[in-house]
TrEMBL record:
Keywords: Membrane, Transmembrane, Transmembrane helix. Coiled coil: none annotated. It holds the Pfam family DUF2975. The keyword Cytoplasm does not apply. InterPro entries: DUF2975. The chain crosses the membrane at residues 12-36, 48-76, 88-110, 116-140. This is DUF2975 domain-containing protein. It comes from Citricoccus alkalitolerans.
Length: 165
């Protein structure tokens, strides 16, 4: 049986999630409204999608944080290799893929304006990394499913063996 995850590690990860959540709330409450004010001279047809995409991107990150918190709770309870983890992993995959789509939208919006081509390429690279992360989480989900199935099979075999003994 592998060693359990050390509790201090989970506490550190949770502290990082709290800091990230706090930062994301500052972005939503302060930074995005200031960006909106700075875009005062830009057409509304441009500023609404820009600020909206950025806000939705932050919300995607918050969703990932909540799901990671849930997975850490399962780790502490020794239940990470259970079907209860699937929903959180699926939501993480969807949120990261949605973030990638928002980055593509942002890149398309900026490519039509005065943004430097390098910035648009960087955003495109970030979108590519987001899609790669979503696919990686999907692979991890498949591995989790295999582990859960093997655990269930091992329990059945243990039950059968105890019935024989």
């Amino acid at each position: 049986m592998p060693a359990p995850v050390p509790r201090p590690l989970v506490i550190i990860l949770r502290a990082m999630l709290v800091l990230a959540a706090t930062g994301s709330l500052v972005v939503l409450a302060v930074i995005l409204p200031l960006l909106w004010i700075d875009l005062g001279g830009v057409t509304v047809a441009y500023s609404i999608p820009l600020v909206g995409a950025l806000g939705l991107g932050v919300l995607c990150l918050q969703v990932v944080g909540v799901c990671l918190w849930h997975l850490l709770t399962l780790v502490l309870r020794g239940r990470i290799f259970s079907r209860a983890a699937f929903r959180s992993v699926d939501v993480i995959t969807g949120a990261v893929a949605t973030g990638g789509l928002l980055l593509v939208l942002l890149g398309v919006m900026l490519s039509g304006g005065t943004a430097a081509p390098g910035i648009v390429l960087l955003i495109g690279g970030a979108a590519l990394l987001a899609f790669a992360a979503a696919l990686t989480v999907n692979v991890a989900r498949r591995l989790l499913a295999q582990a859960v199935d093997r655990d269930a099979q091992a329990r059945r075999l243990e039950d059968e063996l105890s019935d024989v003994i």
